[in-house]
Fold this protein.
Amino acid sequence: MERFSPAWAESWKQALNDSSSYRFTARKWKGPLVLRVLGSVNWWLDLEAGQCNGVRSVSGEEAGQAETVLAASASDWNRVLDGELAPLVAIMQGVIKLEKGSMIRLSRFSKAASDMMDLAMRLEAPAPAAGPDPRFAPQPLPDPVVHTSFRTTSAGLDQDSLPMQLYHKAKKLGVWDPMDIDLRADRADWVRLAPDEQDVLMRLLAMFQAGEEAVTLDLLPLIRVVAREGRIEEEMYLTTFLFEEAKHTELFRRVFDEVVMRRDDLSGYHTPSYRNLFYEALPTALSRLDTDASPAAQLQASATYNMVVEGTLAETGYHAFYSVLESRGIMPGVTEGIRLLQRDESRHIAYGIHLITRLVRANPSLMGVLQSTMTDLLPVASATISELFAHYDPMPFGLKEEDFLQYAMDQFGKRMRRIELATTLDQSVAE
Ligand SMILES: [Fe+2]
Ligand SMILES: [Fe+2]
């Protein structure tokens, strides 16, 4: 059956209506969606609560009346339909253009979009056989119970490698002491804030506090895998990484002790999506490395830790702090701490991009693991932001949900493009 033909579109509609998974993931979607194949056809899908009530080809003018319009060339749609690119990732990278509609709304339906594309793919190819993909089979840790050689007494350290560059930077920039930050003016500013202003800052602080503790607690299995693989340069850098996370944990606790002056249980500030990410997804992905050191497990861990938690959510959190504190010129100690902490985090994220790129270069099919991790977790990240905003009406400090969701998506998109570029460049060099 020819892709994008009327028969193909009709079979797709049938497949959507027969799919219990799609019925569930798209149960809250309302409104027509147009898929434009540039220079060819516009498919109008009448979608309503997990059902497709009709699919028809429409003119460009009529297509513009749909609430959501996605456009791409046939070859780019084929990349998605061939499973090379997850739909949400393709949209964020601009491969599929969102001509009309809300990115934020789409990001909440990434599972439904993924189901739609899976069903379209299966129109042509039978569903893969059930059972685990052997390429992603679990692997125990390599076991050098004895060492057979040492890098520093053979080839020497690879000083040009990114991990060594990050390590040298960390020795200079990552040694600031949270105890040196003067928080006295912050306390004076804090008591002058209105109760709802204090509440929103407390919520942000409580999210960061537990988040820093979680990344401190959860990093170790990754360091262990890297060490077992004999990657001394990466391990040297990771020693600074964990030290820095510990200091970030310390810094936020100082803010609670000396500025907010609260020692009660703050977990009420952790919303369901926050808990999903920090109480479950992050420790699960990282602790998996204790028993499964496969490249797929490493990639899932790094994507969760470096791309979603650090690269998307934490970056958006700093943006929130700066928006509030710098615009009002208040709490100079916290502002300074956030600036120092963000500089450390930029190295952490750079390491994550390095690790993911290294893994994907060695095995390009792992790009699929990266995309499925993102498809699972990006909606949770955006829901975490939305749940924060849902507690306030009006939102103090004039913060706008749409701005922050867009900021989060931009941060993520930027890093994905770096990974795509790095892996593509390497392949063309290798060819
Ligand atoms: Fe941190
Ligand atoms: Fe970090």
